[in-house]
Amino acid sequence: MELRFRVMAKSDAHIVLTTSPLVLNPLYEIVIGASGNNYTDLRRTMTGRSVSAVKTPSLLSDSEFRGFWVVARQGEIEVGREGETLPYFHWKDADPLPVHYYSLSSWTSTVAKWIQNCDFGGKTSWLTPSDNSSTEDNGSLGPQSEESYYNAEEKLKANLLATYNKDVRPATDHRTPVSVFLGLSLVHFDLSWRDERLKWNSSAYENVTLLHFPSHTIWQPDLKLFNGLGIDLKLSNIYGDTELIPENALYTHNLYVTNLQWELKEFNASIHKFNDCPENDGSCSNYLYPEAHFSFIVRRKSPLYIATVTVPALMLTVLTLVTFALPPNSLEKVLIGSVNLLVLSIFLIYLSSLLPPMGDHMPLVVSYLSKTLVMVVLSLVLAVVTITMTRTPRMYGPPYWIKNILTGVTGKILGLQQIITLVNRVNGDRTSRQQQSTDDYTLHVDAGDHDVNLVNTSTDQRIQAPVFRGAVEAMNPAELEWLLLAYGLDRLAFIIYFFTFMIMMAMCF
User: Which InterPro entries match (predicted)?
Assistant: First the structure.
């Protein structure tokens, strides 16, 4: 038996040779394009094991018919390609079967189209239009007049590609440039151009106006994506203008998406031209290659992100500023700063477990928290300095020029008027008391409670002072000046921290 046929399939073209009309074992089953279009094998039973196989990668095509021949004679099975006299597959059966019937089929998930008893001898294309059809009207191809197993779309595709050279630019004149229009979106990019060779008279082909082609069969621009993964570019349609839309490549991954909203903040597109000469030394041509650059910035809108990250970060900022509102000699400044430092460290460790360890850019929230951590450490250092400054007994005050600054315009800007007034009042009271006669004062001591009260006998009024004033009265003039300096440092640090945090929040949130 000698069988000639053409087949168009992605893979798994099955030819079954049997001894009877019923497909019963034993038999010969030839599979062209087995194992994903990588092998041609022969089986002795239906769906049985292969008895012989040869590697034939990409032998079949899902976009064009390819011809083969099969010869079965006295147990010898030979399979060859159209136009070749020698088989690429040969196997001899030790117990030959008398073959009288054959059937053509494909795998359940594969669509295959067959043409049987094809004449491979003639050089004329078996889809060439007849002499009665015109090929000059409007430069289009005419229809076939002879009977064929092809439908109108298949005829048109075969005729268009019969003399088509995909390595030649689609222009009728070699001096005419081909304009390619490039568009970009977040999921794919679009290319469009006009192919002068892919046009036809639709009325001659049953009003076919749309064709689908694989990218390897026609000309396409030499476009390369610098930072993209390799994907197969598929043509969406061809009619008048050619449009190329790459298919989305799928990769194994775990993803959970819940209505993410993105805001386009900035988008820029530009064309740059360069030649193939590293140095302009005249050793190469002056041809310029165009290069398209797209850059965009998107921002995610996420209420959950604001509630779990942004708000805690802002609260830690407020807590840092609160430490400067406490008195300079208060130990609570160190306590609040230490708690703030601990919370920030835990927060950063938590974020590091969620974010990828590698990357060229640091997330804005991590940058904000890390800078806040540094500022909290500096505030702790300042708190230790002010506490030491106000709690250490001193006999000498700060330099004179510092006192002038704090009691002048700078002190008013820093809001130290009340503190300056209180310090001056206490110093004035102390001076006036020292000038009064000691006869005007009597010291009353209650032996039971051991309370000591200073009473003005001339006016008989007790000096009632707040707790802070009592602490100030216990200081000497030098210590009061150091207290004023500590207040000035706290107020100045508060102003610096406040505006620094405002700038950081404007940049990071």
Answer: Methyltransf_FA, Neur_chan_lig-bd, Neur_chan_lig-bd_sf, Neuro-gated_channel_TM_sf, Neuro_actylchol_rec, Neurotrans-gated_channel_TM
